[in-house]
Each structure stands twice: as structure tokens, then as C-alpha cells.
Amino acid sequence: MKDDPQVHWLLKPTSIKILWRVGLSILAALVLSDLIIHTHSAFGIDGSFGFYSWYGLLTCFAMIVFAKLLGFFLKRKDTYYDD
């Protein structure tokens, strides 16, 4: 699989490892930049360290839970179009 020209570069294990490392490095750099960049907080809590990181993570989790609950209420039977 490593030298197979038919395999897309995003499916190769080495490419996946590199992309994970680059992505996590960028995320860590963005969180650590909060130590250097002075933010002007409008509320008390948004001035805390890494606020936008953990707020974004919690918001993402909330959207996933909401989508799962919404899917539970809106789902149809498999034979919906057969009726």
C-alpha cells in the first residue's frame, strides 16, 4: 500500500500521521498564542486562557448532541416511501 500509485495520498498512513501532527501543532500554537496576544474581553469569562478553544469545543459537542436528538425525532421508517 505504501508504494501503490493507485492509493490516494490522503489514505496513506504516513500522510495521515503528518496531517494529524500538523493539525495538532496548529491548534496548540493557536491556544498558546493566547499567552502573547492581549484580548479585550466583553464579559468576564471570555478573558480567560483558551476561552475560544474550549468554548468552540463545547459548542461543537452541543451541536452534535442536538443533531442526534433532532434525528431521533425526525427519522422515518425504512418503508416510508413504499407506502
Main attributes of the structure:
83 residues; mainly alpha; 2 helices; 53% helix
Helical region count?
A: 2
**Count the strands?**
0
The mean pLDDT is: 89
Instruction: Choose one word for the global shape.
Output: flat
SSE pattern, N- to C-terminal: HH
The portion of residues forming beta strands comes to under 5%
**How many angstroms separate the termini?**
47 Å
Residue stretches low in confidence (pLDDT < 50, at least 5 long) are: none
For the record, the count of structural domains works out to: 2
Produce the secondary structure layout.
Layout: H1 13-32, H2 51-74
Structure explained in plain terms:
- This protein has 2 domains: 1-37, no CATH class; 40-76.
- The protein is flat and about 60 Å long.
- It is built from 2 helices and no strands.
- It has helices at residues 13-32, 51-74.
- By secondary structure, the chain is an all-alpha fold.
- The longest helix has 24 residues, at 51-74.
- The mean pLDDT is 89.
Put the structure in a nutshell.
The chain has 83 residues and is mainly α. The chain has two helices and no strands.
